[in-house]
Amino acid sequence: MTAGWVFAVVAGSCAALSSTFMKLVSDATFNSSVTTAGNNAGTFLEGILYPHTVGVLINIAFIFVTQSLMWFYFSKSLVYCDSALEATVINTACNFSVSALLGSVLFGEELTLQWCFGLSLILAGVLLIVRQTTLPNMEKPELKKE
């Protein structure tokens, strides 16, 4: 495993965390608006100053932080991987896998046998792509120095 792979895995994990924080924000906002609308809870400001608003703002901040980290590490993976394709598919596969695990653990989402089979096909495809881009007989292009 190269440094590029590590950076791509970290980037994919950060993207999955960002999705998790977004789900927490959207669930909290949806639940709040339904409760507020259902109770006809007075003014617009009362709906905004709901007790969970601080939690929503913290989650939004975490979305920006994890997205920034994802782009930072993805950029590093592009530098250290043999190709942009390699960095992208490793990042995507890791994002997909970690998102599923977080969804199952945090939100009780069901991972069916069909879903696990689909993930195994995706990971097998990723391995084939990465293997194809890192064959020893491939020559790397020389960078022109000006």
Molecular structure report:
With 146 residues, the protein is mainly alpha-helical. Helix content is 79%, strand content 0%. The longest helix has 37 residues.
Short description, anyone?
The protein is mostly helical. The protein is 79% helix and 0% strand. The relative contact order is 0.16.
- What is the total domain count? 1
Number of contiguous helices:
5
Structural class, from secondary structure content?
mainly alpha
> Overall mean pLDDT score?
79
Oligomer: single chain
Tell the overall outline: flat
* Rounded radius of gyration (Å): 21 Å
InterPro entries: EmrE-like, TMEM42
Protein name: EamA domain-containing protein
Transmembrane segments: 49-72, 84-106, 112-130
Keywords: Membrane, Transmembrane, Transmembrane helix
